[in-house]
Amino acid sequence: MSPTHESNPLRDPHDRRLTRIAGPSALVLFGVTGDLARKKLLPAIYDLMNRGLLPPSFALVGFGRREWSDEDFVAQVRDAVENHSRTPFREDVWNQLTSGIRFVQGAFDDPEAFGRLRAVLDQLDEDRGTKGNHAFYLSIPPNAFEQVCQQLADNDLATHEQTSGWRRVVIEKPFGHDLDSARELNAIVERVFPADSVFRIDHYLGKETVQNILALRFANQMFEPLWNANYVDHVQITMAEDIGIGSRAGYYDGVGAARDVIQNHLLQLLALTAMEEPISFGADHLRSEKEKVLAAVRLPEDLEEASALGQYAGGLQGGEEVKSFLEEQDIPQDSLTETYAAIKLDINTRRWSGVPFYLRAGKRLGRRVTEIAVVFKSSPNLLFRHRSHEDSDQNAIVIRIQPDEGVTIRLASKVPGTQRELRAVNMDFGYGSSFTESSPEAYERLILDVLLGEPPLFPRHEEVELSWKILDPFEEHWRDHGVRPETYVPGSWGPESAHRLLARDGRAWRRP
């Protein structure tokens, strides 16, 4: 049995939500040969074991088409761990983990393979004491969810009426490609698994700084009184990447930056930034407040002026010649898929009425950064009329999600000398320099929460559907009006249309 614990992620500043040990359990991983499994999931499982957060009885079962033996799979796991784990490699930990590793060969449409999976799990329950506690991680394309879920149901793997154990399913984004498909996907999964056994992974919600938004807002009296339309001018939420699509053409073309990033990651960040204080940090209370924010989002009347689309061109970036999006392998020459998207949203609540939220995401931009910038209204500055920068009188709180996790507060300071001149300066807090312990990787936290059965960090289908209700009108407008993405220079900060989006409101994007 796992120890008794509360669901409060802020219960102890030294807790980091990783001081609790998962109970006896087996994790079945579909899609073991993919990049996500190799670079993130398998290393995270090892790191959890290395930190003593998985029980000695933990078992990992891989399911795939490869004709691997258990030993072959162990070798693949070891390669992933040695190349991508966060914590040092230790033979004793590795030996403990490998004693519970199994592999089941088969295809998603092969009932006999799922029969073999059932037999392997039954044997693990008996030999290792996993007690019927089975989590199924679907690191596979959404179009395979229905087949896999049905196979699990047909082989009595999705229910636990005959045992005292639990069954849980983990699904990766994308959760559909629009509202209708999201509803259909949810119906498929919840026909087999109860709603409270479905864990939708958004890895951004596992990042330390994302969770620290709640601490920043609700545990610091100096911020919460100012966190409203009386003082805040606007909010910018940015996810910028300095790379292209790489080998993701098969997934990315036809999806684009808005569906890939804004619908999930950035709208979740918006909800955490704008939500009211929950009654508790329990899953239902957190989700309720986030859902209220998403339901209160209002779209501007003119979607053309409230959005911008871009597509990166070829050229020099960082001294290297890079391809344009249309030159990437397997991308059609007439593709209208955007690699940059920006939208403007309003939130129709008393706290945020009149405060625009600007969301942007793109590839081949100036640098890799994800941040939330809460920009405050200008002060009258009756005493200090001379400024070295036009924006120096606008304070800002910038929450950095990646790569340098932390918080920056921008404020105005007098320049040394006799002149009454102001200049913007930063007060900076970084996790790396402020804490001796390192932040856990997002997937460590999320996998552990799945095994513990703690759902606060996982969006329910109501949040997913509300997010699609926000983005679908933009997607329909772009499609129906034949909006073509504007090309932008690699290493820049997006197309000119994105800068005009804010300039029309007398504002400008921050330079991260």
UniProtKB/TrEMBL annotation:
Quote the InterPro entries the UniProt record gives. G6P_DH, G6P_DH_AS, G6P_DH_C, G6P_DH_NAD-bd, NAD(P)-bd_dom_sf
Write the gene name. Answer: zwf
In Swiss-Prot or TrEMBL terms, this protein is called Glucose-6-phosphate 1-dehydrogenase
Which transformation does this protein catalyse, written as a reaction? D-glucose 6-phosphate + NADP(+) = 6-phospho-D-glucono-1,5-lactone + NADPH + H(+)
Pathway field of the UniProt record reads: Carbohydrate degradation; pentose phosphate pathway; D-ribulose 5-phosphate from D-glucose 6-phosphate (oxidative stage): step 1/3
Name the NCBIfam families on file: zwf
Q: Which family does it belong to?
A: Belongs to the glucose-6-phosphate dehydrogenase family.
UniProt entry keywords in alphabetical sequence: Carbohydrate metabolism, Glucose metabolism, NADP, Oxidoreductase
Source organism = Rothia santali
Q: What does this protein do?
A: Catalyzes the oxidation of glucose 6-phosphate to 6-phosphogluconolactone.
**A Pfam entry, by short name:** G6PD_N
Q: Which residues bind NADP(+)?
A: R65, K173
What residues does substrate bind to? H203, K207, E241, D260, K363
Q: Which Gene3D superfamilies match?
A: Dihydrodipicolinate Reductase, domain 2 (3.30.360.10), NAD(P)-binding Rossmann-like Domain (3.40.50.720)
- GO BP terms: glucose metabolic process; pentose-phosphate shunt, oxidative branch
Catalytic residues at H265
Q: What's one GO-annotated cellular component?
A: cytosol
The residues covered by the Glucose-6-phosphate dehydrogenase C-terminal domain are 214-510
Might you give the EC number(s) for this enzyme? 1.1.1.49
Locate the Glucose-6-phosphate dehydrogenase NAD-binding domain: which residues?
Answer: 28-212
> Recorded GO terms, molecular function?
glucose-6-phosphate dehydrogenase activity; NADP binding
Question: Coiled-coil regions in this chain?
Answer: none
